[in-house]
Structure formats: structure tokens, C-alpha cells
């Protein structure tokens, strides 16, 4: 008698399937592990590494996909224009990041890994978030709603992201509880 193959067989498993499984695992507040992904997909761990990279790269990609959608939705829903619109979008992004069960679990149970994945430039999350915020700032600037004569758009985007991070990761950095209200005030001050 032939043994039944896992639901996601090797013939159907690919990079996107692996990312969807990693996302589902993360959102369920479970630890994302290369071996577990490989087993569930019916492939070996080398295949998962080839598709997605190491564990940090997988986590960065999962969090990026969540973060990108959150930021774009927050920007689309933000009212006003220019700096206030970006500040509102970033504030919503911070609030939704703090409210996301998977992110809270990741930040609280794997603090060092989370900070490494989310804030180091060799990972892909932060540079992509800075680039996205820069794109949104550029939209507002091109529409004439944002004056940036005193600062480069990339530098301003970086500052916005770092301010948001400061209040999302504050418990890991200073031991204080995360505070989206403080982030909102700081972002509105920066982008006034």
C-alpha cells in the first residue's frame, strides 16, 4: 500500500507556497522554522533555503508582506495631505503593528531575533519600509502638499520609520511599554 503524500506535495510546492505557509504559521503565533516548513511541504530544507534563504530572511519576508499591505492600506485610508497624511498613515501602521497578534508574539518571544530581522539593514524589512515611506512622501511632495526643502526625502523616510520603530520596540529597547499615542505625537511633530 502506498503512503499518502502530504497535502502540499513536492510537485506543487514552490517559493510562494512556502511563503504562504510561513505567513500562516507566523499569524498563528507559532515559531517559523525551516525544518517544519520543509516537512509540511514535502521537500528538504535545502530546497526551502534555496527558495527563501535562512530563517531570518523568511521572517523578514513574512513581516514585510504584512507591513507593506498595512502601510499601503493606512496611507489609502488617511485623510488630509502632505505631512499630516503621512503622519496619520505611519501612526495607523504603528497601531496595527502593535495590535497584530503574530507580531506581538514574535516581539515578545523572540525579541533579539525580531530586532535583528526588523531593524538591521542586511535584512530586507527596514530598507523596503523606508523605500515605501519615501515613495509615499514623494507622492505628497509631487502633489505640492509637502515641502522638503530642508531634508532629503530618503532621510525623512528613514526618520519616520525609526520614530515608528522606537515606539513599537520600546519594551525591548528601554523596558517601557509600547505606546502608539507617543508615536503619533512624535510623527505629527516631525511631519508638521
From TrEMBL:
Pfam families, A to Z: TetR_C_36
QsdR TetR regulatory C-terminal domain ranges (all copies): 82-192
SUPFAM superfamilies referenced in this protein's UniProt entry, alphabetically: Homeodomain-like
Identification of the protein by name: QsdR family transcriptional regulator
Amino acid at each position: 500500500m502506498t503512503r499518502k503524500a502530504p497535502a502540499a506535495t513536492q510537485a506543487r510546492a514552490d517559493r510562494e507556497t512556502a511563503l504562504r505557509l510561513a505567513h500562516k504559521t507566523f499569524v498563528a503565533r507559532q515559531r517559523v522554522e525551516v525544518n517544519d516548513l520543509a516537512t509540511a511541504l514535502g521537500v528538504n530544507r535545502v530546497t526551502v533555503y534555496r527558495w527563501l534563504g535562512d530563517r531570518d530572511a523568511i521572517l523578514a519576508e513574512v513581516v514585510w508582506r504584512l507591513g507593506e499591505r498595512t502601510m499601503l492600506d493606512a496611507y489609502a485610508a488617511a485623510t488630509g495631505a502632505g505631512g499630516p497624511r503621512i503622519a496619520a498613515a505611519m501612526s495607523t501602521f504603528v497601531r496595527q503593528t502593535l495590535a497584530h497578534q503574530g507580531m506581538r508574539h514574535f516581539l515578545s518571544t523572540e525579541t533579539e531575533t525580531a530586532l535583528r530581522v526588523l531593524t538591521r539593514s542586511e535584512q530586507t524589512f527596514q530598507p523596503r519600509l523606508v523605500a515605501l515611506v519615501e515613495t509615499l512622501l514623494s507622492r505628497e511632495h509631487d502633489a505640492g502638499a509637502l515641502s522638503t526643502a530642508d531634508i532629503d526625502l530618503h532621510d525623512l523616510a528613514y526618520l519616520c520609520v525609526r520614530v515608528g520603530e522606537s515606539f513599537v520596540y520600546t519594551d525591548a529597547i528601554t523596558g517601557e511599554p509600547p505606546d502608539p499615542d507617543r508615536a503619533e505625537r512624535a510623527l505629527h511633530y516631525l511631519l508638521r
